[in-house]
Write a structure and sequence with these properties.
With 462 residues, this protein is mainly β. It folds into 2 domains: 114 residues, Immunoglobulin-like (Sandwich); 288 residues, Beta-galactosidase, Chain A, domain 5 (Distorted Sandwich), CATH 2.70.98. Helices cover 5% and strands 41% of the residues. It is built from 4 helices and 24 strands. Strands 13, 14, 15, 16, 17, 18, 19, 20, 21, 22, 23 and 24 form a 12-stranded antiparallel sheet that branches. Strands 8-9-10-11-12 form a 5-stranded antiparallel sheet, with no helix packed on it. β3 and β4 form a beta hairpin. 35% of the residues are buried. It holds the Pfam family Bgal_small_N. It catalyses: Hydrolysis of terminal non-reducing beta-D-galactose residues in beta-D-galactosides.
Length: 462
């Protein structure tokens, strides 16, 4: 096994600050760390801002002091819900150093459905090679919004077939250990001891790893910056907020099964409510609601969301959101919104020491699929963040103090660990010895409400 050594790896006598001198922009093998892409974005010298986007007019600012933009050409694309629908080039960029110029692009939105989000991607590329840079190298880019994203209606409807009566799901309550929801070609089970969804089978396809559960999640494996600010101790109450089931109820409402679980969170004084609405095809709308005790003083949390484990065969990811590299609430400016297809294995980045990684933000929809294209799709009431790894949070967590570990030494698990979050606290990329995220990127102790829908994806055999 090959690892990159850092302070403390070589002997027990030398002074050491752990991996402090080995966590910069570039890893020892010259591979850019994920945060390098964000730095590269802010270091670029050509900037694009709206002038009159409805007429296709943009403003280009040349931040260079001593060269104009004649060495570059502009490439633009219009994307509707992530699909390229128009594109073009501007070969003659007449923008002097430290000057701005307006440029007209032949954009036409008339043929694009008003229901779709429309984005404009602009990139600036070299006409000819320069030193180490080949012709066509992108030296700057931006993404502008032509039409805002419209979140989907979160009303979960039954799937109706003409002249065929809806077959409502039924709830079996006489089992000692499980509350069982049966429907046409699906079975969903809830553990009566803790109220958690613990089995999800549709048309013979097991969508959850055996023995796993869909559980609330408020914790992440602390990052280097988290350790530097002591957040692994300050936020420790959220690692195990001592959830205790106080009520588990079920009903049939509007020809759908509804399961409601209520919890005390003894360590925080809050109340948590999980509501599951299940339609006739096995789609599940999940509502996670936390009501804080206004009289309690409790720390911020790392995240507000849920996690579940799927069989390892669900090893492909498709999503419409910011990518392709990992990104976080305060480190996502350089990640463009688009449609991406990746593997679960590609989500993990081997930082010098193990820690939280692989998250994507501003997700519109997310799919976890097997090789046959079957799996689960997730959508939410607003753009959300998500990750899918072959590593658990626990396996990447060093505990209260940094351990002398390396990412390559962490054994992957034999399932896909999926996290879906309303929000996750930022990374505080100011320094790694005390800075915490800016206020707008923190999650204070307060009320939260998060709704998402899980929809099975399966292809009929013909």
């Amino acid at each position: 096994m090959d690892i990159y050594g850092y302070g403390g790896d070589f002997n027990k006598y030398d002074g050491s600050d752990n991996n402090f001198c080995d966590n910069g922009l570039i890893s020892p093998d010259r591979v850019p760390n994920p945060h390098a892409y964000e730095v590269a974005y802010f270091y670029q010298n050509i900037w694009t801002t709206p002038a009159n986007l409805q007429k296709g007019e943009i403003t280009v600012y040349n931040e260079n002091f001593f060269r104009d933009l004649s060495a570059y050409y502009l490439k633009w694309k219009v994307l509707a819900n992530g699909e390229v629908v128009q594109s073009g080039f501007v070969n003659d960029l007449k923008v002097a150093p430290q000057q701005k110029a307006n440029i007209q692009l032949p954009i036409d939105l008339k043929g694009i459905c008003p229901c779709k989000e429309v984005l404009l991607n602009v990139s600036y590329k070299l006409k000819a090679g320069e030193t180490l840079l080949a012709p066509g190298t992108t030296v700057a880019y931006d993404q502008l919004t032509l039409r805002d994203y419209q979140a989907p209606d979160m009303k979960l409807a039954n799937s109706n077939t003409t002249n065929v009566a809806v077959k409502m799901p039924t709830v079996q309550v006489n089992d000692t250990s499980y509350l069982i929801v049966n429907g046409e070609n699906f079975t969903i089970e809830f553990n009566k001891q803790n109220g958690y969804l613990c089995r999800y089978e549709v048309k013979g396809m097991q969508l959850m790893e055996e023995g796993s559960m869909l559980t609330p999640n408020f914790w992440r494996a602390p990052t280097d910056n988290d350790y530097g600010a002591g957040l692994q101790k300050k936020y420790a109450v959220w690692k195990n907020p001592q959830l205790k089931l106080t009520s588990l109820q079920q009903a049939i409402e509007n020809e759908q099964a509804v399961v409601r679980a209520a919890y005390e969170m003894k360590a925080t004084g809050a109340k948590l409510y999980l509501t599951y609405t299940i339609n006739n095809k096995g789609a599940v709308k999940v509502n996670q609601k936390m009501v804080a005790d206004k009289n309690q003083k409790v720390s911020d949390m790392f995240r507000f969301g849920m996690q579940m484990q799927l069989p390892k065969t669900f090893d492909e990811v498709e999503f419409y959101g910011r990518g392709p590299v990992e990104n976080y609430a305060d480190r996502n400016h350089g990640a463009l919104v688009g449609k991406y297809r990746q593997t679960v294995a590609e989500q993990f980045y081997a930082y010098i020491r193990p820690q939280e990684n692989g998250t994507k933000t501003d997700i519109r929809w997310w799919k976890l699929l097997n090789r046959g294209g079957n799996g689960l799709q997730f959508v939410a009431e607003a753009p959300f963040s998500a990750s899918a790894l072959n590593y658990t949070i626990e396996s990447l967590d060093d505990g209260e103090e940094k351990d002398q570990r390396h990412s390559q030494e962490v054994a992957p698990v034999d399932f896909t660990n999926f996290c879906i979050d309303k929000a996750q606290t930022g990374l505080a990329c100011v320094n790694s010895w005390g800075a915490i995220p800016l206020k707008q990127y923190r999650l204070p102790y307060q009320d939260y409400d998060f709704t998402f829908i899980m929809t099975p994806i399966y292809h009929e055999m013909k």
